[in-house]
Amino acid sequence: MTTDAAPALLEVEHLTQRFGGLVAVSDVSFWACDRKITAIIGPNGAGKTTVFNCLTGFYTPSEGRLCLNSGDSHWLLERMEPYRIAAAARVARTFQNVRLFSGMSVLENLIVAQHVKLMGASWFTVAGLFGLPGYRKAEREAVELARYWLDRVGLVGVADWQAGNLPYGAQRRLEIARAMCTDPRLLCLDEPAAGLNPRESADLADLLTFIRDQHRIGILLIEHDMSVVMKISDHVVVLDYGRKISEGPPAQVRNDPAVIRAYLGEEEE
Amino acid sequence: MLRSALRDAALAAMVALLLTMPLIGLRTVESNSRLVVEPHFIDVAVTVALVFLGRLGLTLAGAAKGPAWSVLAAALTVVGSGWLLPFPTQALRWLAVAGGILVGLRALVALRARHGTLTEAERDRRMDRIGARLQDASRLIGPVAVIFALLLPLLPFADRALIDLGILLLTYIMLGWGLNIVVGLAGMLDLGYVAFYAVGAYSYALLAQTFGFGFWLCLPLAGLFASIYGLMLGFPVLRLRGDYFAIVTLAFAEIVRIVLLNWAWFTNGPIGISGIPRPSFFGLAVFAKNPPEGAIAFHKLFGLEFAQIHRIIFLYYIILALSLVVNFFTLRIRRLPLGRAWEALREDEIACTALGINRTTIRLAAFAIAGMFGGFAGAFFATRQGFISPESFSFIESAIILAVVVLGGMGSQVGVVVAALLVVGLPEAFRELAQYRMLAFGAGMVVIMLWRPRGLLAHREPTILMHPRRSACQQQADTEARG
User: Fold this and answer.
1) Residue-by-residue DSSP string for B211-239
2) What DSSP string runs through B40-64?
3) Which residues of A touch B347 (CB under 8 A)?
4) What ipTM goes with this model?
5) A153 touches A146 (CB < 8 A)
6) What pTM value is reported for the model?
7) What confidence tens digit (pLDDT) does each residue in A118-131 have?
8) Cystine design at B407: which of A258, B174, B414, B419 (Cβ 3.0–4.6 Å)?
9) How many CB atoms lie within 10 A of CB B95?
10) Cα–Cα distance between B66 and A32 in angstroms, integer?
11) In chain B, whose CA is at the least distance from the CA of A103?
């Protein structure tokens, strides 16, 4: 483990997920630190997305402990309902196949992301219904935050478009912006570079390092695009057939024989 | 191409022959107190010929380079001959005329399409543009329509029948707007909206009869009960999704109706409740020629001649006010976090969860609010009719309300009004043709499904803009330019 001053934001311990007889994830433990990018890599079907779904509450793990530490508060994610994981523990995620609200406008997507905050400000709709100043102020702030992130991902000009009409790369960026609008402590990205061209991948890498350095949150990243992974991650966890086969800084993982075997297969005698 | 079209038409004629031979060709009639079979082979022959021609016409008109002009001419000839030639029965004559018109229309559509080579996507986009333009215009049309509705009872041609029709229309518009919250905004297909209506109506009827409460006290109570029913229904039902959800809401609406039917000592069963009190003029005056002891008559209060229509006009204004409340509420809530969360849930539930939105409470809110409006409408229905029975709350009511929402374009407020005019207004206006109503209704639904599956005026306007000043039209143009 790269043990420096940064506290372990997320502790995954002995995570196991079974579906009937199939063991999708088996006894996986790793840490993800604050202000670091932790990448989870592995061949297809290695159980990476399953780990994400356990983390964000879409699956209830069969065994193991998922603990999110932030300052004095600790959240046991495996016991929380999915929406609470996002609202209270503030773990945001994106999806492998982009899940935008495609019929709504780009800006609306980002406003919906701030639902929890705005719902409180509107006193569960009552204040909003009468247009009280407190709510109007909260909404203006929400738009400002949305503008900030749209600016970051270069989509201010198309803020009023239907999200579904954006080109694919822009939809991917918008999904990240939407996740960031929830003001997360931990951002989980499921293959953010899938389907992007090299130029867009490079922009994505810049965006992620910006989020890590400026917003000081932890990023957990599933990625196949090794150019992105090796360039930006601080720590890499390698899964294969549901097991952790290697872990460490990118340079070390790259030369690990177990990893090479998993990706390229074993040479026959 | 001609050969395959002929073969196709012959096949259709064959099927028609098989079907009509036993159904039309042989009829049993009584003669000398005995049943004898009477052949009607000429009818069969004419039917089969019509089917053959119709099918041929449709195929040829629809074909890529078909002889649309000749088909059009032939269709017109058939329509003309429908008037002139002797037909064995009236029904066949109408069939010939209607079929001819249909084929002719198809040919016309084909000719037009060939002119501009309009693909399906383009047509859809064109309709979208109309929707967008209407949305723009609705800022103007809306107030004009409201003013017209306000002035309607005072206009010289407003007789009792017209105001009654207005009340009926407004009731369905209000129900449509209420259901629009669940179906259009939150995206849950509720096939049992009539249950809320029933709960509201019975709440008012029973409260008024048992405790003697007035309309203005019962109205909020009816809304409250209906929304409690919505919450009770919501807890078990909201776990389900899609079709399962629709079926269960349908089942619950039937349960409500059957309970009302069988809980005789409480609801008076199939006999229903009659003598439901009429609303008073805000508790100040009553609408009666000879008011009871201690009450003031409305016409005396305003120094008018007594007229029955005063009460009708008052009812009209009540339902107008109620439906406007629903409309303004919906317009407003679309711009609030709750409304946006509804729409987001409709778009993608999983993404909503990942953003910290609690699906259950958000949906329960939709159910409770829509239920409340349904309850208001129900209480109004009870006081207008003066009599309710479980028969008024059968599935067909739910279906009509849903049809209003779906036809109008889910989530579109103006669309609901247009669709209510079509679905409720037209059949009322053409009451003489009552027996063909359902036929026309079904045909209309099929046409909409084919041409405009998202509803007549389905166009969604963003609820918040980063770059204001731009109208929906321009936005639509933008999206098209890009998409």
Assistant:
1) H---HHHHHHHHHHHHHHHHHHHHHHHTT
2) -HHHHHHHHHHHHHHHHHHHHHHST
3) 100-104
4) 0.89
5) no
6) 0.79
7) 888 777 777 777 77
8) B419
9) 18
10) 68
11) B347
